[in-house]
Design goal:
About 40% of the residues lie in helices and about 15% in strands. The protein is α/β, with parallel strands linked by helices. The strands form three sheets. Strands 7, 8, 9, 10, 11 and 13 form a six-stranded mixed sheet that branches. A five-stranded mixed sheet has the order 2-1-3-12-6. Helix 1 packs antiparallel against helix 14 and helix 6 crosses helix 16. The longest helix is centred in the last third of the chain and has 15 residues.
Length: about 425
């Protein structure tokens, strides 16, 4: 899932008081004369506009392990991160611990750059439906840090002006609310889609309810040829078009607005009642000062409750070439512990990927967290047919459809082709 919009390229070093390497064996090297080991950690979160409590957790780790220091490097996300780490991994110069997502884990794991973490104590505690996203060829190559929601934001002050007191939970109510908001002279909803991410993601979010409440095994069935996008996903695609047909969205305009920079700024400035983005934006939006609610996309029939859509987000992996492997594994293990990971989840407004893990709650995300705890959710299959290449291709096909350049039938056929590509 593209979580770009991170335009600041900052490098942050956290070197601080550290703590005993109690469980480290003789596998670590590079220690100073007093036995202190410094590990290099690289990530695209923990700095810039998304500190995510990473520095706080690093400090706590160093306090708990006085013989390990953390040299933390923040690198802006998207292409910059990959462009920097790819040659470093090739040259054996990458960090001891590196942040990955499912796509990077699979690519770098296949190249032999990532250590097998299957025997770590936390590996058996990963929630069953989160486990596939951290594994490749039967090996656990990364520690999942979060399951993060992607859904509908609502400016509750603007909804109140239109006589609306709660976020809609089904499609008919959503359309009624959009009509009320528009009648009150307020821009109903912003769906900026310059890179093709929003259209593709809303399509997935709508399907998380309309498709997956009928079949939780849709992904597995699709992979063995038991179902197809046409007709199963015709409803989610139609929802995108309905928003324009009813005058709530002008897709030609939306396709010219960047969803990662201008989109968040506009919603925080109070320019629309609704907006679609990931839960990682909640902390930034809260700074705007108005009450905000983050909820699942209301895509179902009248009276139904929606499924939340989750993305298996950031993960920690250990560089297989690290000369400080024991210390690196200690660092990852520290993050896996609920009391430590909760600080990150709180900043991200995300759900725990571990069975029995602690999922922080907030007033802004009550609707989404309730759906998660009720088991009303689906995780984007970024480990199978919705990988990075398919996501990009599907986003492009949906853009063409929204611009009237392709029919619904052709678009679903094109999506099927993109999702089936190996």
């Amino acid at each position: 899932m593209k979580r770009s919009g991170r335009r600041l390229a900052v490098v942050i070093t956290v070197a601080a008081m550290a703590a005993p390497l109690a469980a480290c064996g003789g596998g670590s090297s590079g220690a100073s004369s007093d036995g202190t080991v410094t590990i290099h950690v690289q990530a695209w979160k923990g700095g810039g506009a998304e500190p995510a409590n990473v520095a706080e957790i690093n400090k706590a780790f160093e306090k708990a392990h006085p013989k390990i220091k953390v040299d933390f490097e923040y690198i802006t996300a998207n292409d910059t991160y990959v462009q920097k780490l790819q040659p470093e991994l090739l040259g054996g110069k990458a960090g001891d611990v590196i942040m990955v997502d499912t796509d990077k884990m699979k690519k770098w794991g296949a190249s032999g750059y990532l250590a097998d973490l299957s025997k770590e104590t936390w590996a058996s505690k990963i929630a069953p439906d989160a486990k596939p996203f951290a594994q490749a060829d039967g090996k656990t190559l990364a520690m999942p840090m979060e399951l993060i929601g992607i859904g509908l934001y609502a400016n509750m002050d603007l909804l109140k002006k239109a006589g609306i007191t709660e976020v809609p939970a089904d499609w008919p109510t959503f359309l009624d609310d959009l009509a009320k908001v528009k009648k009150a002279g307020i821009n109903p909803i912003a769906l900026p889609d310059k890179s093709g991410w929003t259209g593709s993601s809303v399509f997935q979010a709508a399907g998380s309810t309309t498709v997956y409440q009928k079949s939780r095994t849709w992904d597995a069935d699709f992979l063995v040829g038991k179902n197809s996008f046409d007709p199963d996903w015709s409803g989610p695609l139609a929802q995108l078009k309905t928003l324009e047909d009813k005058g709530y969205v002008n897709w030609k305009n939306e396709l010219g607005i960047d969803e990662w920079s201008q989109g968040p700024q506009d919603f925080s400035a109070g320019k629309s009642a609704f907006w679609y983005q990931g839960a990682w934006q909640v902390s930034n939006v809260k700074k705007a000062g108005f009450p905000v609610s983050f909820a699942p996309w209301p895509g179902g029939d009248k009276g139904t409750e929606p499924n939340g859509m989750l993305f298996s987000g950031t993960m920690w992996a250990v560089n297989s070439q690290s000369q400080k492997a024991d210390a690196a594994r200690e660092y990852v293990d520290f993050w896996s512990q609920s009391e430590n990971l909760a600080k990150y989840l709180d900043a991200e407004h995300a759900e725990s990927p571990f069975t029995g893990g602690t999922t922080p709650e907030s007033t802004e995300t009550t609707a989404f967290t309730t759906a998660f705890k009720d088991g009303r959710y689906r995780i984007l299959p970024s480990d199978s047919w919705y990988g990075a290449a398919a996501e990009t291709a599907i986003g492009s096909k949906i853009q063409a459809y929204l611009l009237g350049k392709a029919s619904a039938a052709q678009t679903l056929k094109d999506i099927q082709t993109a999702a089936s590509a190996k």
